[in-house]
Amino acid sequence: MTGPKPAKIHILLLAALLFAAAVSSCAFFRDPAGETIQADRRVRVTVLPGEGVTVKAQSTLAEPGSDVEFLLEPDGYTEIVSVGYAGTYTLTPQEDGVLLRLAAVRYPVTVPVRTASDYARVTYDPNGGSGTAHTVVYDVSVRARPNTEQGGESGFYRDGYTLTSWNTEPDGSGVRVGLGSRVTAGRTLTLYAQWARWTDPSLFTFGEDEGFFSVTGYSGGDREMLVIPSEIGGNTVKRIDDRVFTGCTFSDVVLPSGLLRLEREAFSACRVGRLVMSDCIAAVYDESFYRCEGPSTLYINGATDPFGVLYRRESLFADKIDMLITTMGEPRMVCFGGCSMWYNLDGAAMDAAFGDRFRIVNTAVNGVVSAYVQMTVMLAYMGPGDVLFHTPEISSPQQLLVTSEMTQEDVSLWAGLQRNYDLLALVDLGEIPGGLFDSLRRFVRLRTEGGAYTDLYTDSKGRSYLDAYGCASFPRTEQKEELMDRIGLDAGLLSDLSGMKEMYGRFTEKGIPVYVSYAALDAEDLSADALEGLPGIQAQMENAVREMDGVKLVSVLEDYLFERADYYDTYWHLLTPAASRCTALWIRDLEAGMGHGAAAY
């Protein structure tokens, strides 16, 4: 029996080696969701060095399962305490810094480096109330701005007064911080309780019905400040009945801290300026302020834990705004749109293209919640040197600013505002024609019905919704069995874009140029008539933007048509490779529209 000739043996061995190499290069790992990814798909690892620490190559791509190293360089006054990595890591002193080694990195991760400056000490002072001043230590390495204590947590009390807020000065002349809202703390900070004296209880009538101790009448007329007593004779005021304050004028109204129900027309035909209330309220209606002028400003104090991120992932909106607050003074490219921007922006790729000019911040959360509220909040923390990049979903009246009215869908936005209710106080409620209190009532009802609570911005499978740029960065490699949220294009929505013009004008008036593009569309989900109408929609957008000073449309709608196979779980969320292609289109169009090295045109 004769064997293969030596040349054939060499060929067979070579083929076997090539096959083995191919098999090895396609070794499989599983991400936290149980999805299979190939070992040659590199994952992005980013270090957030924090104050007093620099790092060369802050972000890198690594093979799944490999160790990743970063050289940290603390200044002479900074001590590295730990890093926020769930796996095994080591910190080894070197001559030129500290070597951080992350073991077995298997999926994209952002790792904060914690130093002594990552801990803020906030002292709460009762400021004339009963209770003991005390200090709380907050870890601010992950969340730079901690949520303050709520009223009940403080243990402070003052007979005949309502605790309305904290302030950085005892007399209230400093920075106001709502109970439970966020604060920029630094190393140390003292917050002083602010008290509002109750309006004379003899001006009210009270009653009890169905287990509720209620305000049933009022005879005090107009006044600058109305502070409704929180309790009478040991009874907690939990309801304000219909038409109690009809026709009155108040500059400020403070509702009882334990109020559960504000009935319809409680403030009817009134003029109300600022309103202070607690989020323990179970029932409040738009009709509670029927035919009212105001309220113009709403301060909400937190009395309950923020709603679960697992239930409403849009609750990270407050953290996205914190990215703006903590980077004020730096030039930022603020990317905004619906969830198509949140999911489809590759922040690292955008950073590679524009990072020499701008810090990239993705503030988008959801296309069907109030863009008016979101953009008003964003604008408060933007200024000259920033640019706004907006990709409105053209089937969304909210994103097109056709309406500023709030709807039942805004429970998702409330979940984000609950993380920092002070953001809502930036909004002139007179610009919201309706829906605010009705949507708040629905949110409170859903919140009290339950839902998982977690403080981490990951889903139940451990995948991050928030990376260093504000993007949903977890790998999306396989399409879900059924896609949700069908796309319905209505060219009529673009017939009046005056709301968009007015909002963009607020940005350009502050020296912020606005660049407009589009969200990705599933071409297979559009009807033949809708596809034929895309050039007409493009023309409508071009004509509208042409009338807006400081605004530039940089894209052509038909360039953003994708295939059904490119989508992950809805018709707005692209799979990771398609999201990278979408980002490349945005970068191409922005570079052409902005010009090299220029923020404006």
Provide a descriptive summary of the structure in words.
- With 601 residues, the protein is α/β, with parallel strands linked by helices.
- The protein has three domains: 38-114, no CATH class; 201-301, Alpha-Beta Horseshoe (Leucine-rich repeat, LRR (right-handed beta-alpha superhelix)), CATH 3.80.10.10; 313-594, Rossmann fold.
- Helix content is 21%, strand content 26%.
- It contains twelve helices and 33 strands.
- The strands form nine sheets. The protein has a five-stranded mixed beta sheet with strand order 12-11-15-13-14, with no helix packed on it. A five-stranded mixed beta sheet has the order 16-17-21-23-25.
- Helix 7 packs across helix 8.
- The longest helix has 20 residues, at 6-25.
- The chain is globular, with a radius of gyration of 28 Å.
- It starts with 5 loop residues before the first helix and ends in a 7-residue tail after the last helix.
- The relative contact order is 0.09.
- Residues 1-40 and 597-601 have low confidence and may be disordered.
